[in-house]
Amino acid sequence: MWKLLPFLKPYRKQAIVGPLFKFLEAVLELTVPLVMIRLVDRGVAERDMPYIWRMAGLLVLIAAVSWGFALICQYSASIASQGTGTLLRNALYKKVSGMSHAQLDKLGTHSLITRITNDVNQLQTAVAMLIRLVVRAPFLAVGAVFMAMTIDLRLSLVFVVVMPLIALILYLIMSRSVPYFRAIQKKLDRISLYTRESLSGVRVIRAFARQKEEEEKFYAAGDDLAETSVRVGKLSALLSPLTSLVMNGGIAVILFCSGSQVNIGRLTQGEIIAFVNYMTQVMLALVVVANLVVIFTRASASAARVNEVLAIEPDITSPKDPIPFPADRSKPAVEFAGVSFSYHADAESLVLQDISFSVSAGETIGVIGGTGSGKSTLVQLIPRYYDATEGEVRLFGADSRRYDLKALHRKIAVVPQYASVLSGRLRDTLSMAAPDASEERLWHALSVAQATEFVEKLPNGLDTLIDQGGKNLSGGQKQRLTIARALVGDPDILILDDSASALDYATDAALRHALRTELSDITVFIVSQRVSAIRHADRILVLDDGKSVGLGTHADLLADCPVYREICASQPGGGGRR
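Now predict its structure.
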Protein backbone atom coordinates (compact mmCIF):
# COMPACT_ATOMS: atom_id res chain seq x y z
CA MET A 1 0.00 0.00 0.00
CA TRP A 2 2.94 2.32 0.51
CA LYS A 3 3.36 2.55 -3.27
CA LEU A 4 0.01 4.32 -3.45
CA LEU A 5 0.98 7.11 -1.03
CA PRO A 6 1.79 9.55 -3.90
CA PHE A 7 -1.95 9.61 -4.67
CA LEU A 8 -2.55 10.94 -1.13
CA LYS A 9 0.07 13.67 -1.56
CA PRO A 10 -2.29 16.36 -2.96
CA TYR A 11 -4.31 15.95 0.25
CA ARG A 12 -1.42 16.38 2.68
CA LYS A 13 -3.27 19.12 4.56
CA GLN A 14 -6.32 16.92 5.16
CA ALA A 15 -4.08 13.97 6.03
CA ILE A 16 -2.44 16.08 8.76
CA VAL A 17 -5.42 18.11 9.99
CA GLY A 18 -7.74 15.08 10.26
CA PRO A 19 -5.56 12.94 12.56
CA LEU A 20 -4.54 16.02 14.57
CA PHE A 21 -8.13 16.84 15.48
CA LYS A 22 -8.88 13.18 16.10
CA PHE A 23 -5.90 13.13 18.45
CA LEU A 24 -7.28 16.16 20.31
CA GLU A 25 -10.65 14.40 20.54
CA ALA A 26 -8.93 11.35 22.07
CA VAL A 27 -7.12 13.55 24.60
CA LEU A 28 -10.44 15.04 25.69
CA GLU A 29 -11.96 11.56 25.91
CA LEU A 30 -9.17 10.48 28.26
CA THR A 31 -9.99 13.37 30.57
CA VAL A 32 -13.61 12.26 31.03
CA PRO A 33 -12.81 9.58 33.70
CA LEU A 34 -10.77 12.21 35.62
CA VAL A 35 -13.81 14.48 35.69
CA MET A 36 -15.90 11.50 36.79
CA ILE A 37 -13.54 10.95 39.76
CA ARG A 38 -14.18 14.51 40.96
CA LEU A 39 -17.90 14.29 40.29
CA VAL A 40 -18.30 11.05 42.30
CA ASP A 41 -15.78 11.56 45.11
CA ARG A 42 -16.64 15.17 45.86
CA GLY A 43 -19.96 16.04 44.26
CA VAL A 44 -21.92 12.84 44.92
CA ALA A 45 -20.14 11.84 48.12
CA GLU A 46 -20.61 15.32 49.68
CA ARG A 47 -24.02 15.92 47.99
CA ASP A 48 -22.65 19.17 46.56
CA MET A 49 -25.24 19.91 43.83
CA PRO A 50 -23.57 23.11 42.48
CA TYR A 51 -20.33 21.16 42.08
CA ILE A 52 -22.21 18.28 40.39
CA TRP A 53 -23.78 20.73 37.92
CA ARG A 54 -20.36 22.31 37.20
CA MET A 55 -18.83 18.92 36.50
CA ALA A 56 -21.84 17.89 34.39
CA GLY A 57 -21.48 21.13 32.43
CA LEU A 58 -17.78 20.38 31.94
CA LEU A 59 -18.65 16.92 30.57
CA VAL A 60 -21.16 18.47 28.16
CA LEU A 61 -18.53 21.00 27.05
CA ILE A 62 -15.99 18.21 26.48
CA ALA A 63 -18.58 16.30 24.45
CA ALA A 64 -19.42 19.38 22.34
CA VAL A 65 -15.78 20.22 21.61
CA SER A 66 -15.03 16.54 20.86
CA TRP A 67 -17.97 16.50 18.45
CA GLY A 68 -16.59 19.57 16.67
CA PHE A 69 -13.14 17.98 16.42
CA ALA A 70 -14.72 14.78 15.07
CA LEU A 71 -16.63 16.73 12.40
CA ILE A 72 -13.44 18.44 11.21
CA CYS A 73 -11.68 15.09 11.04
CA GLN A 74 -14.60 13.46 9.20
CA TYR A 75 -14.69 16.30 6.68
CA SER A 76 -10.94 16.04 6.08
CA ALA A 77 -11.15 12.24 5.73
CA SER A 78 -13.97 12.53 3.19
CA ILE A 79 -12.06 14.99 1.02
CA ALA A 80 -8.83 12.98 1.17
CA SER A 81 -10.39 9.55 0.59
CA GLN A 82 -12.69 10.61 -2.26
CA GLY A 83 -9.95 12.68 -3.85
CA THR A 84 -7.43 9.83 -3.60
CA GLY A 85 -9.96 7.42 -5.07
CA THR A 86 -10.62 9.78 -7.97
CA LEU A 87 -6.90 10.17 -8.70
CA LEU A 88 -6.45 6.39 -8.52
CA ARG A 89 -9.31 5.74 -10.93
CA ASN A 90 -7.98 8.36 -13.32
CA ALA A 91 -4.49 6.85 -13.18
CA LEU A 92 -5.85 3.34 -13.74
CA TYR A 93 -8.02 4.46 -16.64
CA LYS A 94 -5.09 6.32 -18.22
CA LYS A 95 -2.86 3.28 -17.76
CA VAL A 96 -5.47 0.96 -19.29
CA SER A 97 -5.95 3.36 -22.21
CA GLY A 98 -2.24 3.15 -23.00
CA MET A 99 -1.97 -0.64 -22.83
CA SER A 100 -1.47 -2.68 -25.95
CA HIS A 101 -4.11 -5.12 -27.12
CA ALA A 102 -1.93 -8.00 -25.88
CA GLN A 103 -1.77 -6.55 -22.35
CA LEU A 104 -5.52 -5.94 -22.30
CA ASP A 105 -6.10 -9.52 -23.46
CA LYS A 106 -3.88 -10.82 -20.67
CA LEU A 107 -5.56 -8.94 -17.81
CA GLY A 108 -9.12 -9.24 -19.11
CA THR A 109 -11.79 -6.56 -19.28
CA HIS A 110 -13.77 -8.02 -16.37
CA SER A 111 -10.77 -7.91 -14.03
CA LEU A 112 -9.88 -4.33 -15.01
CA ILE A 113 -13.44 -3.18 -14.32
CA THR A 114 -13.36 -4.78 -10.86
CA ARG A 115 -10.01 -3.17 -10.08
CA ILE A 116 -11.14 0.30 -11.15
CA THR A 117 -14.39 0.04 -9.15
CA ASN A 118 -14.38 -2.40 -6.24
CA ASP A 119 -10.65 -2.38 -5.46
CA VAL A 120 -10.45 1.41 -5.52
CA ASN A 121 -13.50 1.58 -3.22
CA GLN A 122 -11.66 -0.64 -0.74
CA LEU A 123 -8.67 1.71 -0.86
CA GLN A 124 -10.92 4.75 -0.39
CA THR A 125 -12.31 3.20 2.77
CA ALA A 126 -8.79 2.47 3.99
CA VAL A 127 -7.73 6.11 3.46
CA ALA A 128 -10.77 7.37 5.36
CA MET A 129 -10.09 4.99 8.25
CA LEU A 130 -6.40 5.89 8.18
CA ILE A 131 -7.23 9.53 8.83
CA ARG A 132 -10.11 8.95 11.23
CA LEU A 133 -8.98 6.08 13.44
CA VAL A 134 -5.35 5.03 12.96
CA VAL A 135 -4.12 7.73 15.35
CA ARG A 136 -7.11 7.77 17.69
CA ALA A 137 -7.52 4.05 18.43
CA PRO A 138 -3.91 3.18 19.37
CA PHE A 139 -3.53 6.45 21.30
CA LEU A 140 -6.70 5.74 23.29
CA ALA A 141 -5.54 2.21 24.10
CA VAL A 142 -2.07 3.30 25.24
CA GLY A 143 -3.33 6.53 26.82
CA ALA A 144 -5.96 4.72 28.85
CA VAL A 145 -3.31 2.36 30.26
CA PHE A 146 -1.04 5.30 31.14
CA MET A 147 -3.87 7.22 32.82
CA ALA A 148 -4.82 4.11 34.77
CA MET A 149 -1.22 3.82 35.96
CA THR A 150 -1.34 7.37 37.30
CA ILE A 151 -4.30 6.37 39.46
CA ASP A 152 -2.92 3.08 40.81
CA LEU A 153 0.15 1.33 39.48
CA ARG A 154 -0.53 -2.11 40.96
CA LEU A 155 -4.13 -2.33 39.78
CA SER A 156 -3.09 -1.17 36.30
CA LEU A 157 -1.09 -4.41 35.91
CA VAL A 158 -4.41 -5.91 34.79
CA PHE A 159 -4.03 -3.84 31.60
CA VAL A 160 -0.53 -5.25 31.05
CA VAL A 161 -1.97 -8.76 31.02
CA VAL A 162 -5.10 -7.97 29.00
CA MET A 163 -3.49 -6.09 26.09
CA PRO A 164 -1.05 -8.88 25.00
CA LEU A 165 -3.96 -11.34 25.07
CA ILE A 166 -5.93 -9.05 22.76
CA ALA A 167 -2.91 -8.68 20.47
CA LEU A 168 -2.55 -12.48 20.32
CA ILE A 169 -6.24 -12.87 19.37
CA LEU A 170 -5.83 -10.25 16.61
CA TYR A 171 -2.76 -11.96 15.19
CA LEU A 172 -4.30 -15.44 15.16
CA ILE A 173 -7.51 -14.33 13.46
CA MET A 174 -5.93 -11.93 10.96
CA SER A 175 -3.22 -14.32 9.86
CA ARG A 176 -5.96 -16.73 8.79
CA SER A 177 -8.18 -14.06 7.22
CA VAL A 178 -5.70 -12.47 4.81
CA PRO A 179 -5.71 -15.30 2.20
CA TYR A 180 -9.52 -15.23 2.13
CA PHE A 181 -9.63 -11.51 1.36
CA ARG A 182 -7.30 -12.02 -1.61
CA ALA A 183 -9.43 -14.89 -2.86
CA ILE A 184 -12.60 -12.79 -2.55
CA GLN A 185 -11.26 -10.15 -4.97
CA LYS A 186 -10.43 -12.82 -7.56
CA LYS A 187 -13.88 -14.33 -7.20
CA LEU A 188 -15.39 -10.89 -7.71
CA ASP A 189 -13.49 -10.81 -11.01
CA ARG A 190 -15.19 -14.04 -11.99
CA ILE A 191 -18.65 -12.72 -11.17
CA SER A 192 -17.87 -9.57 -13.15
CA LEU A 193 -16.88 -11.75 -16.11
CA TYR A 194 -20.09 -13.79 -15.99
CA THR A 195 -22.20 -10.65 -15.56
CA ARG A 196 -20.58 -8.95 -18.52
CA GLU A 197 -20.88 -12.03 -20.74
CA SER A 198 -24.52 -12.61 -19.77
CA LEU A 199 -25.61 -9.02 -20.34
CA SER A 200 -23.74 -8.53 -23.61
CA GLY A 201 -24.81 -11.95 -24.93
CA VAL A 202 -28.38 -11.95 -23.62
CA ARG A 203 -29.86 -12.27 -27.11
CA VAL A 204 -27.70 -15.29 -27.92
CA ILE A 205 -28.54 -16.91 -24.58
CA ARG A 206 -32.26 -16.46 -25.17
CA ALA A 207 -32.01 -17.59 -28.78
CA PHE A 208 -30.63 -20.95 -27.64
CA ALA A 209 -32.78 -21.11 -24.49
CA ARG A 210 -29.68 -21.27 -22.30
CA GLN A 211 -30.98 -19.04 -19.51
CA LYS A 212 -31.08 -21.84 -16.96
CA GLU A 213 -27.51 -22.99 -17.69
CA GLU A 214 -26.18 -19.43 -17.51
CA GLU A 215 -28.10 -18.80 -14.30
CA GLU A 216 -26.62 -21.96 -12.77
CA LYS A 217 -23.12 -20.88 -13.79
CA PHE A 218 -23.66 -17.43 -12.26
CA TYR A 219 -25.24 -18.89 -9.12
CA ALA A 220 -22.26 -21.25 -8.71
CA ALA A 221 -19.85 -18.31 -8.89
CA GLY A 222 -22.03 -16.36 -6.44
CA ASP A 223 -22.24 -19.29 -4.05
CA ASP A 224 -18.46 -19.72 -4.21
CA LEU A 225 -17.98 -16.05 -3.33
CA ALA A 226 -20.61 -16.28 -0.58
CA GLU A 227 -18.96 -19.37 0.89
CA THR A 228 -15.57 -17.66 1.05
CA SER A 229 -17.13 -14.48 2.47
CA VAL A 230 -18.94 -16.49 5.14
CA ARG A 231 -15.70 -18.23 6.12
CA VAL A 232 -13.84 -14.97 6.54
CA GLY A 233 -16.93 -13.47 8.18
CA LYS A 234 -16.93 -16.23 10.79
CA LEU A 235 -13.28 -15.58 11.53
CA SER A 236 -13.79 -11.82 11.74
CA ALA A 237 -16.90 -12.30 13.90
CA LEU A 238 -14.71 -13.91 16.58
CA LEU A 239 -12.84 -10.65 17.14
CA SER A 240 -15.51 -8.73 19.01
CA PRO A 241 -16.70 -11.49 21.40
CA LEU A 242 -13.19 -12.69 22.20
CA THR A 243 -11.91 -9.20 22.89
CA SER A 244 -15.05 -8.45 24.94
CA LEU A 245 -14.52 -11.64 26.91
CA VAL A 246 -10.95 -10.72 27.77
CA MET A 247 -11.82 -7.11 28.59
CA ASN A 248 -14.83 -8.00 30.72
CA GLY A 249 -12.63 -10.49 32.51
CA GLY A 250 -10.21 -7.63 33.17
CA ILE A 251 -13.04 -5.46 34.53
CA ALA A 252 -14.13 -8.30 36.82
CA VAL A 253 -10.58 -8.62 38.16
CA ILE A 254 -10.44 -4.86 38.75
CA LEU A 255 -13.72 -4.87 40.68
CA PHE A 256 -12.70 -7.93 42.69
CA CYS A 257 -9.29 -6.60 43.65
CA SER A 258 -10.39 -3.03 44.25
CA GLY A 259 -13.21 -3.82 46.69
CA SER A 260 -10.90 -4.35 49.63
CA GLN A 261 -8.84 -1.30 48.63
CA VAL A 262 -11.93 0.89 48.85
CA ASN A 263 -12.74 -0.50 52.31
CA ILE A 264 -9.32 0.45 53.67
CA GLY A 265 -9.43 3.85 51.98
CA ARG A 266 -6.57 3.23 49.56
CA LEU A 267 -8.85 3.80 46.55
CA THR A 268 -12.02 5.85 46.17
CA GLN A 269 -15.24 4.89 44.45
CA GLY A 270 -14.58 7.50 41.78
CA GLU A 271 -11.17 6.00 41.01
CA ILE A 272 -12.71 2.56 40.59
CA ILE A 273 -15.28 4.03 38.17
CA ALA A 274 -12.41 5.72 36.31
CA PHE A 275 -10.55 2.40 36.13
CA VAL A 276 -13.61 0.70 34.64
CA ASN A 277 -14.01 3.60 32.17
CA TYR A 278 -10.40 3.30 31.09
CA MET A 279 -10.76 -0.45 30.71
CA THR A 280 -13.87 0.12 28.55
CA GLN A 281 -11.96 2.66 26.46
CA VAL A 282 -9.16 0.15 25.94
CA MET A 283 -11.67 -2.51 24.93
CA LEU A 284 -13.45 -0.23 22.45
CA ALA A 285 -10.14 1.02 21.05
CA LEU A 286 -8.85 -2.50 20.54
CA VAL A 287 -12.10 -3.56 18.85
CA VAL A 288 -11.64 -0.60 16.51
CA VAL A 289 -8.04 -1.70 15.92
CA ALA A 290 -9.33 -5.18 15.10
CA ASN A 291 -11.79 -3.74 12.57
CA LEU A 292 -9.01 -1.57 11.16
CA VAL A 293 -6.92 -4.69 10.66
CA VAL A 294 -9.79 -6.21 8.67
CA ILE A 295 -10.18 -3.06 6.56
CA PHE A 296 -6.47 -2.73 5.88
CA THR A 297 -6.12 -6.42 5.13
CA ARG A 298 -8.78 -6.13 2.43
CA ALA A 299 -7.23 -2.89 1.23
CA SER A 300 -3.83 -4.56 1.06
CA ALA A 301 -5.22 -7.23 -1.27
CA SER A 302 -6.84 -4.52 -3.40
CA ALA A 303 -3.67 -2.42 -3.39
CA ALA A 304 -1.68 -5.36 -4.75
CA ARG A 305 -4.14 -5.71 -7.64
CA VAL A 306 -4.15 -1.97 -8.34
CA ASN A 307 -0.35 -1.83 -8.19
CA GLU A 308 -0.19 -4.71 -10.64
CA VAL A 309 -1.98 -2.55 -13.21
CA LEU A 310 -0.06 0.65 -12.39
CA ALA A 311 3.26 -1.21 -12.62
CA ILE A 312 2.59 -2.35 -16.17
CA GLU A 313 4.56 -0.39 -18.71
CA PRO A 314 2.94 -0.32 -22.16
CA ASP A 315 4.91 -2.62 -24.44
CA ILE A 316 3.92 -0.60 -27.51
CA THR A 317 4.99 3.04 -27.18
CA SER A 318 6.08 5.96 -29.31
CA PRO A 319 9.83 6.28 -29.92
CA LYS A 320 11.78 9.03 -28.15
CA ASP A 321 12.53 10.78 -31.44
CA PRO A 322 9.63 9.99 -33.79
CA ILE A 323 9.83 10.82 -37.46
CA PRO A 324 7.03 12.71 -39.29
CA PHE A 325 4.29 10.64 -40.88
CA PRO A 326 4.57 9.76 -43.71
CA ALA A 327 8.34 9.46 -44.06
CA ASP A 328 8.47 9.22 -47.89
CA ARG A 329 5.32 9.14 -50.03
CA SER A 330 7.29 7.81 -52.98
CA LYS A 331 7.87 4.55 -51.09
CA PRO A 332 5.28 1.76 -50.69
CA ALA A 333 2.49 2.74 -48.31
CA VAL A 334 2.72 -0.61 -46.52
CA GLU A 335 5.48 -3.19 -46.67
CA PHE A 336 5.77 -6.44 -44.74
CA ALA A 337 9.37 -7.67 -44.66
CA GLY A 338 9.70 -11.23 -43.31
CA VAL A 339 7.02 -10.64 -40.67
CA SER A 340 6.19 -13.38 -38.18
CA PHE A 341 3.93 -12.93 -35.17
CA SER A 342 2.90 -14.76 -32.01
CA TYR A 343 0.46 -13.55 -29.36
CA HIS A 344 2.66 -14.97 -26.61
CA ALA A 345 6.41 -14.66 -26.41
CA ASP A 346 6.78 -18.27 -25.30
CA ALA A 347 4.33 -19.69 -27.84
CA GLU A 348 5.70 -22.43 -30.02
CA SER A 349 3.35 -21.85 -32.96
CA LEU A 350 3.29 -18.56 -34.85
CA VAL A 351 0.02 -16.97 -35.94
CA LEU A 352 1.79 -15.41 -38.93
CA GLN A 353 4.91 -16.86 -40.55
CA ASP A 354 7.38 -15.04 -42.79
CA ILE A 355 4.92 -12.69 -44.52
CA SER A 356 6.45 -10.44 -47.19
CA PHE A 357 4.63 -8.12 -49.60
CA SER A 358 4.37 -4.42 -50.43
CA VAL A 359 1.42 -2.16 -51.23
CA SER A 360 1.69 1.06 -53.22
CA ALA A 361 -0.10 4.23 -52.12
CA GLY A 362 -3.66 4.31 -53.42
CA GLU A 363 -3.76 0.57 -54.03
CA THR A 364 -6.65 -1.59 -52.81
CA ILE A 365 -5.61 -4.93 -51.32
CA GLY A 366 -8.02 -7.73 -50.52
CA VAL A 367 -7.08 -10.17 -47.76
CA ILE A 368 -8.82 -13.54 -47.76
CA GLY A 369 -8.36 -16.91 -46.12
CA GLY A 370 -10.09 -19.48 -44.00
CA THR A 371 -11.18 -18.97 -40.41
CA GLY A 372 -8.12 -18.63 -38.17
CA SER A 373 -5.74 -18.00 -41.07
CA GLY A 374 -4.46 -14.75 -39.51
CA LYS A 375 -6.29 -12.13 -41.60
CA SER A 376 -7.29 -9.83 -38.74
CA THR A 377 -3.95 -10.31 -37.01
CA LEU A 378 -2.09 -9.25 -40.14
CA VAL A 379 -3.93 -5.94 -40.57
CA GLN A 380 -3.70 -5.16 -36.84
CA LEU A 381 0.09 -5.07 -37.19
CA ILE A 382 -0.18 -2.07 -39.54
CA PRO A 383 -1.40 0.48 -36.92
CA ARG A 384 0.75 -1.22 -34.26
CA TYR A 385 -2.07 -2.69 -32.22
CA TYR A 386 0.50 -5.47 -31.96
CA ASP A 387 4.18 -5.46 -32.89
CA ALA A 388 5.73 -8.07 -35.15
CA THR A 389 7.63 -10.82 -33.34
CA GLU A 390 10.08 -11.02 -36.24
CA GLY A 391 10.64 -8.82 -39.29
CA GLU A 392 9.43 -5.28 -39.97
CA VAL A 393 6.20 -3.57 -40.94
CA ARG A 394 7.23 -0.52 -42.96
CA LEU A 395 4.95 2.43 -43.71
CA PHE A 396 6.04 4.81 -46.47
CA GLY A 397 9.59 3.48 -46.29
CA ALA A 398 10.09 3.57 -42.50
CA ASP A 399 9.62 0.97 -39.76
CA SER A 400 6.21 1.59 -38.14
CA ARG A 401 7.96 1.62 -34.75
CA ARG A 402 9.69 4.89 -35.70
CA TYR A 403 6.44 6.85 -35.88
CA ASP A 404 4.56 8.54 -33.07
CA LEU A 405 1.63 6.32 -32.08
CA LYS A 406 -0.92 9.15 -32.09
CA ALA A 407 0.16 10.28 -35.54
CA LEU A 408 0.00 6.68 -36.71
CA HIS A 409 -3.53 6.17 -35.41
CA ARG A 410 -4.70 9.49 -36.85
CA LYS A 411 -3.62 8.51 -40.36
CA ILE A 412 -4.50 4.80 -40.25
CA ALA A 413 -8.23 4.18 -39.84
CA VAL A 414 -9.35 0.72 -38.76
CA VAL A 415 -12.95 -0.43 -39.01
CA PRO A 416 -13.09 -3.60 -36.85
CA GLN A 417 -15.11 -6.76 -37.39
CA TYR A 418 -17.55 -5.91 -34.64
CA ALA A 419 -19.02 -2.44 -35.13
CA SER A 420 -18.69 -0.45 -31.91
CA VAL A 421 -20.73 2.74 -31.71
CA LEU A 422 -20.56 4.92 -28.59
CA SER A 423 -23.66 6.43 -27.06
CA GLY A 424 -24.42 10.11 -27.66
CA ARG A 425 -25.23 12.22 -30.68
CA LEU A 426 -24.58 10.61 -34.04
CA ARG A 427 -22.63 13.74 -35.03
CA ASP A 428 -20.22 13.23 -32.12
CA THR A 429 -19.72 9.57 -33.02
CA LEU A 430 -18.83 10.47 -36.61
CA SER A 431 -16.40 13.24 -35.67
CA MET A 432 -14.28 11.23 -33.20
CA ALA A 433 -11.25 11.36 -35.50
CA ALA A 434 -11.81 15.02 -36.42
CA PRO A 435 -13.79 16.95 -33.77
CA ASP A 436 -13.76 20.11 -35.91
CA ALA A 437 -15.04 18.36 -39.06
CA SER A 438 -17.58 20.39 -41.02
CA GLU A 439 -21.10 19.15 -41.67
CA GLU A 440 -20.26 18.85 -45.37
CA ARG A 441 -17.36 16.55 -44.53
CA LEU A 442 -19.60 14.38 -42.33
CA TRP A 443 -22.23 14.01 -45.06
CA HIS A 444 -19.54 13.18 -47.65
CA ALA A 445 -18.22 10.37 -45.41
CA LEU A 446 -21.78 9.10 -44.93
CA SER A 447 -22.30 9.20 -48.69
CA VAL A 448 -19.20 7.09 -49.38
CA ALA A 449 -20.21 4.66 -46.61
CA GLN A 450 -23.70 4.32 -48.18
CA ALA A 451 -25.27 5.64 -44.96
CA THR A 452 -26.83 8.90 -46.21
CA GLU A 453 -30.25 7.45 -46.90
CA PHE A 454 -30.90 5.95 -43.46
CA VAL A 455 -29.33 8.91 -41.58
CA GLU A 456 -31.63 11.35 -43.41
CA LYS A 457 -34.61 9.29 -42.25
CA LEU A 458 -33.60 9.43 -38.59
CA PRO A 459 -35.77 11.73 -36.42
CA ASN A 460 -33.08 14.36 -35.85
CA GLY A 461 -30.55 13.52 -38.57
CA LEU A 462 -27.00 14.02 -37.33
CA ASP A 463 -28.29 15.06 -33.92
CA THR A 464 -30.10 11.76 -33.32
CA LEU A 465 -29.14 10.19 -30.00
CA ILE A 466 -27.49 6.78 -30.26
CA ASP A 467 -28.26 4.32 -27.47
CA GLN A 468 -25.52 2.50 -25.58
CA GLY A 469 -23.75 0.15 -27.97
CA GLY A 470 -25.90 1.42 -30.85
CA LYS A 471 -28.85 -0.72 -29.79
CA ASN A 472 -31.28 1.49 -31.73
CA LEU A 473 -29.41 0.74 -34.98
CA SER A 474 -29.28 -2.40 -37.09
CA GLY A 475 -26.05 -4.31 -37.67
CA GLY A 476 -25.70 -2.96 -41.19
CA GLN A 477 -26.37 0.61 -40.06
CA LYS A 478 -23.71 0.36 -37.36
CA GLN A 479 -21.18 -1.01 -39.83
CA ARG A 480 -21.83 1.83 -42.28
CA LEU A 481 -21.53 4.40 -39.50
CA THR A 482 -18.18 2.98 -38.35
CA ILE A 483 -16.91 3.14 -41.95
CA ALA A 484 -18.08 6.76 -42.24
CA ARG A 485 -16.45 7.54 -38.87
CA ALA A 486 -13.14 6.22 -40.18
CA LEU A 487 -13.40 8.27 -43.39
CA VAL A 488 -14.08 11.56 -41.57
CA GLY A 489 -10.50 11.45 -40.22
CA ASP A 490 -9.12 11.64 -43.80
CA PRO A 491 -6.75 8.65 -43.35
CA ASP A 492 -3.86 7.68 -45.61
CA ILE A 493 -4.54 3.98 -44.96
CA LEU A 494 -8.00 2.50 -44.47
CA ILE A 495 -8.44 -1.02 -43.07
CA LEU A 496 -11.85 -2.65 -43.40
CA ASP A 497 -11.61 -5.78 -41.26
CA ASP A 498 -14.62 -7.78 -42.42
CA SER A 499 -16.58 -4.59 -41.65
CA ALA A 500 -19.20 -5.06 -44.40
CA SER A 501 -20.34 -8.55 -43.36
CA ALA A 502 -23.80 -7.27 -42.39
CA LEU A 503 -24.35 -5.44 -45.68
CA ASP A 504 -26.32 -6.86 -48.56
CA TYR A 505 -24.48 -7.51 -51.82
CA ALA A 506 -25.85 -4.38 -53.54
CA THR A 507 -24.81 -2.05 -50.68
CA ASP A 508 -21.44 -3.77 -50.40
CA ALA A 509 -20.82 -3.33 -54.14
CA ALA A 510 -21.87 0.34 -53.97
CA LEU A 511 -19.51 0.87 -51.02
CA ARG A 512 -16.55 -0.64 -52.86
CA HIS A 513 -17.34 1.41 -55.97
CA ALA A 514 -17.46 4.63 -53.91
CA LEU A 515 -14.14 3.81 -52.26
CA ARG A 516 -12.49 3.27 -55.66
CA THR A 517 -13.87 6.38 -57.34
CA GLU A 518 -13.97 8.97 -54.56
CA LEU A 519 -11.01 7.89 -52.42
CA SER A 520 -8.54 6.73 -55.03
CA ASP A 521 -5.56 8.22 -53.16
CA ILE A 522 -6.20 6.16 -50.00
CA THR A 523 -4.55 2.77 -49.53
CA VAL A 524 -7.31 0.34 -48.67
CA PHE A 525 -7.14 -3.12 -47.07
CA ILE A 526 -10.35 -5.12 -47.34
CA VAL A 527 -10.42 -8.22 -45.13
CA SER A 528 -13.25 -10.60 -45.93
CA GLN A 529 -14.24 -14.23 -46.29
CA ARG A 530 -16.50 -13.35 -49.22
CA VAL A 531 -14.83 -13.52 -52.61
CA SER A 532 -17.33 -10.99 -53.99
CA ALA A 533 -16.06 -8.39 -51.49
CA ILE A 534 -12.40 -8.55 -52.60
CA ARG A 535 -12.42 -9.89 -56.19
CA HIS A 536 -12.23 -6.38 -57.72
CA ALA A 537 -9.30 -5.29 -55.54
CA ASP A 538 -6.07 -4.34 -57.30
CA ARG A 539 -4.45 -7.36 -55.70
CA ILE A 540 -5.54 -10.09 -53.31
CA LEU A 541 -3.43 -11.62 -50.54
CA VAL A 542 -4.37 -15.19 -49.71
CA LEU A 543 -3.53 -16.57 -46.26
CA ASP A 544 -3.60 -20.17 -45.15
CA ASP A 545 -2.70 -21.17 -41.59
CA GLY A 546 -0.69 -17.96 -41.07
CA LYS A 547 1.27 -18.24 -44.31
CA SER A 548 1.01 -16.23 -47.50
CA VAL A 549 0.07 -18.68 -50.27
CA GLY A 550 -0.89 -16.26 -53.01
CA LEU A 551 -0.74 -12.60 -54.07
CA GLY A 552 -2.19 -11.23 -57.28
CA THR A 553 -5.36 -10.32 -59.13
CA HIS A 554 -8.51 -12.42 -59.00
CA ALA A 555 -7.73 -13.93 -62.41
CA ASP A 556 -4.09 -14.65 -61.55
CA LEU A 557 -5.02 -16.40 -58.33
CA LEU A 558 -7.70 -18.49 -60.00
CA ALA A 559 -5.00 -19.75 -62.34
CA ASP A 560 -2.11 -20.18 -59.88
CA CYS A 561 -3.43 -20.52 -56.29
CA PRO A 562 -5.19 -23.77 -55.29
CA VAL A 563 -6.30 -22.36 -51.92
CA TYR A 564 -7.97 -19.39 -53.60
CA ARG A 565 -9.64 -21.64 -56.17
CA GLU A 566 -10.98 -23.78 -53.35
CA ILE A 567 -12.40 -20.71 -51.57
CA CYS A 568 -14.01 -19.49 -54.80
CA ALA A 569 -15.49 -22.91 -55.54
CA SER A 570 -17.05 -23.04 -52.07
CA GLN A 571 -19.00 -19.80 -52.63
CA PRO A 572 -21.88 -19.21 -55.07
CA GLY A 573 -20.58 -17.38 -58.15
CA GLY A 574 -17.09 -17.29 -56.69
CA GLY A 575 -15.31 -18.35 -59.85
CA GLY A 576 -17.17 -16.41 -62.48
CA ARG A 577 -17.47 -12.77 -63.40
CA ARG A 578 -19.89 -10.46 -61.64
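The two ends are 66 Å apart (CA to CA).
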